[in-house]
Write a structure and sequence with these properties.
Helix content is 20%, strand content 35%. It has 120 residues and is an alpha/beta fold. The protein has one domain: Barwin-like endoglucanases (Beta Barrel). The chain has a 6-stranded mixed beta barrel with strand order 1-5-2-4-3-6. The termini are far apart.
Length: 120
């Protein structure tokens, strides 16, 4: 392979790695709601309303996400184990226990920022 070809391949790989998402770079802002599901989640495990878990449309199961309530500054770390929410404008459904720690059980929804901490 010529030097020019090698340089092209290296530049393509560097560009691709710069565009590839990594766990710590993912952040999303939107509305959160809570749910008290007591049946199986999309991952196959039973939902526990007292656990720090959540539903997200696209993040892989097992991903740990920091959820920050933008109204009061409270935050929790949840593990993605379900799919949803399926209501327009919402980006995550957390368990009732997570919503309680975030301070929005009574209101039902709040504005949040999600930051991926790790993908298991």
């Amino acid at each position: 392979m010529s030097l020019l070809s090698r340089l092209f391949v290296v530049s393509v790989l560097v560009a691709a790695s710069a565009l590839a998402p990594n766990a710590s770079a993912f952040a999303e802002t939107g509305r959160a709601s809570w749910y008290a599901l007591t049946s199986k989640t999309a991952s196959g495990e039973m939902c526990d309303p007292t656990a720090m878990t959540a539903a997200h449309r696209t993040l892989p199961f097992g991903t740990r996400v920091k959820v920050e309530n933008l109204k009061n500054g409270r935050s929790v770390v949840v593990r993605i184990n379900d799919r949803g929410p399926f209501i327009r404008g919402r980006i995550i459904d957390v368990t009732k226990a997570a919503a309680a720690r975030l301070g929005f059980v009574r209101k039902g929804v709040t504005d949040v920022r999600l930051t991926v901490l790790s993908k298991d």
